[in-house]
Write a structure and sequence with these properties.
Blueprint lengths: L2 H7 L6 H17 L4 E6 L4 E2 L7 E2 L6 H12 L3 E7 L12 H7 E3 L10 E3 L7 H14 L2 E6 L2 H15 L6 E5 L6 E2 L22 E2 L4 H8 L4 E8 L5 H12 L3 E6 L6 E5 L4 E5 L2 H5 L4 H20 L1
Parallel strand pairs: 1-4, 1-8, 4-7, 8-11, 11-12
Antiparallel strand pairs: 2-3, 5-6, 9-10, 12-13, 13-14
Helix pairs in contact: 2-6, 3-10
GO molecular function, one term: phosphopantothenate--cysteine ligase activity
Catalytic activity: (R)-4'-phosphopantothenate + L-cysteine + CTP = N-[(R)-4-phosphopantothenoyl]-L-cysteine + CMP + diphosphate + H(+); (R)-4'-phosphopantothenate + L-cysteine + ATP = N-[(R)-4-phosphopantothenoyl]-L-cysteine + AMP + diphosphate + H(+)
InterPro entries: CoaB-like_sf (IPR035929), DNA/pantothenate-metab_flavo_C (IPR007085)
Length: 311
């Protein structure tokens, strides 16, 4: 889909131009350091059903895979541009729900005007201090930038801007497209102007298929980048075939195949020439190891080989 069609079909969200500039500066700064940068997309898109939306089409994605992967990429030395659904899982914070913070954090001592000093019980929030330090170190180093989206239109515009920001980095850029993007939408020109009334009886909605944005991303937006997409299915019998079909259509370097019920402990890395299974053992699960740690470690090695081949 050409850029003009994107704007016509999905109106540009407020602030998109500003975020495009912020992302471009972020990528340029890290590129000047010779650092690899990964765009991690995370969480699910929300599709409004009305022009002044009250009702939406949504999906189950929590963003946990994207958030955990972002942490692993930062630990591996990448700069991370984190494009995520508002209020979905966030790197370093997703293990600590707000309700645990409320019970474990309390005011401590006297602080300067306008500031609040807090102390935390480590036994109530194990790992919290380490997570906080990791986040603050990444923020201070300028290696982490988080950009929110909510709707499908937000996501598509910000995805294009992010890809264009990382394009000058060539093969040093990676795209880790873990966001769950809706396959269906209601065009803005066809949306009811006001809230759909239940008094009108049973609701029938005709939705269009979302144009496949990943193919132009490869061909036009960042043709030299190393690109990973995901294929999630509920039927193990079809997931590998579907992943290989996606690999052929989108011409990405990698498609990660996973099954809904086992996605946190088992994935298959699909490339043109190989299939690599990654599995967490029971012992690794008990130790708190995440499948994303293995996945990012594998992908980092493949990215290194990709850069070497390009150069």
């Amino acid at each position: 889909m050409a850029a003009v069609d994107l704007v016509a079909e999905f109106p540009q969200p407020a602030g998109a131009t500003r975020w495009a500039e912020v992302m471009a500066r972020f990528a340029a700064g890290l590129g000047s350091q010779g650092r690899r940068v990964v765009l991690v997309t995370s969480g699910g898109t929300k599709v409004p059903l009305e022009a002044r939306p009250v009702r939406f089409l949504d999906n189950f994605s929590s963003g946990r895979r994207g958030a955990t992967s972002a942490e692993a990429f930062l630990a591996a030395g990448y700069g991370v541009l984190f494009l995520y659904r508002a209020r979905s899982a966030f790197p370093f914070a997703h293990r600590f729900p707000p309700q645990t913070w409320l019970s474990a954090l309390r005011p401590s001592g006297r602080a300067p005007p306008g500031l609040l000093s807090l102390e935390a019980e480590e036994k109530s929030l194990p790992g919290f201090a380490a997570a906080l330090r990791s986040y603050q170190e990444a923020e201070a180093a300028g290696t982490f930038l988080a950009v929110e989206f909510t709707t499908l239109a937000d996501y598509l515009h910000l995805l294009q801007a992010a890809a264009q920001a990382l394009n000058p980095l060539g093969s040093s850029a990676m795209f880790y497209l873990a966001a769950a993007v809706s396959d269906f939408y209601v065009p803005a020109s066809e949306m009811p102007k006001h809230k759909i009334q239940s008094s009108g009886g049973p609701l029938q909605i005709t939705m269009k298929m979302v144009p496949k944005m990943l193919s132009p991303l490869v061909k036009d937006w960042a043709p030299q980048a190393f690109i990973i997409s995901f294929k999630l299915e509920t039927d193990p019998a079809i997931v590998i075939d579907r992943a290989r079909n996606a690999l052929e259509i989108y011409r990405h370097q990698v498609v990660v195949a996973n099954i809904l019920d086992s996605r946190r402990s088992f994935v298959v890395i699909i490339t043109k020439d190989s299939e690599t299974e990654l599995l967490l053992s029971e012992e690794e699960v008990e130790k708190g190891i995440e499948i994303e740690e293995k996945l990012v470690d594998d992908l980092q090695s493949r990215h290194t080989a990709f850069i070497r081949d390009k150069n």
